[in-house]
């Protein structure tokens, strides 16, 4: 009973949120903010634990896997275009992923977070399974990483269009790179709202960013520490 | 009616592939998420024309269009980390938000400047 209510309640609130957003397109009214917020309020006021909610709602998050597999279709459709822009995608994702790890490190350090928490936040820009893997490798706490990844997805898909407007980013390729590199799957689903090309480039960038982050993070930790203390010693 | 039926069948095909690839990745102990391995497998099958794009296009379109909905339950899951959020939630949100804007500007502006240079270099 509660399972069915969780599943269909989530879909219903999501549909209402989408309608509200269409009528009033404010950042704070994005469905990825209003829907979880409404559900959290519902869970807290009715005293429902997340576990019982998720027993029904997990059917929705289970669709993330099939949706990722489905990226293969637009990827194959736009493959020639991707090949043509391969250098641009690769260079931008490399720059973005290095910036992701370095900026998170310095900001977390400036906010005096403890080491374990800092390490947990470093891979927050990439897709959950890879981010948790990186976190574990460098000595972070994978569950905290998963929370940060989720926050990144929400923030990125909400703020992405605003950054695109402010920085005057034109072209489907650059927009896709920006969203996929910064905010993984949630950014990619936003990119598909711009265009099918943006979405495809975003899914490619999301995968590249995951691979790059997995490869570089353990290696740039030492130089980052060095920069901070102003030299060896 | 027929179109809706086709879309639903195609969605089930994606669910099946994703499920099978998850098992395969576990069994082979590959350090790749099953969904990404599945995407690469379907991509190869499409490029080699073993699968035709028309067979999967409707289901793929629906799944990618509605993907934000699938992020809702994990987003609600943040509620389970109340003590972490109370102790360092503000700092975490700051790092995530500012970091994400930095990554966006970095990757977006690099991409845009390369695209412009390419355009400029092209003889007209």
UniProtKB/TrEMBL annotation, chain A:
Coarse class of the protein's main subcellular location: membrane
Topology class, membrane: Multi-pass membrane protein
Parts of the chain that traverse the membrane: 26-44, 56-75, 87-108, 204-228
Pfam families reported for this sequence: LrgB
Keyword list, A-Z: Membrane, Transmembrane, Transmembrane helix
Top-level division of the source organism's lineage: Bacteria
Subcellular location: Membrane
Protein name: LrgB
Automatic annotation (TrEMBL), chain B:
InterPro entries membership: LrgA/CidA
TM region positions: 7-28, 34-51, 63-84, 90-111
Subcellular localization(s) per the UniProt record: Cell membrane
Main location (coarse class): membrane
Membrane-topology annotation of the record: Multi-pass membrane protein
Pfam family of the protein (one): LrgA
Species the sequence originates in: Gordoniibacillus kamchatkensis
Alphabetical UniProt keywords: Cell membrane, Membrane, Transmembrane, Transmembrane helix
PANTHER family: HOLIN-LIKE PROTEIN CIDA, HOLIN-LIKE PROTEIN CIDA-RELATED
Protein name in UniProt: Holin
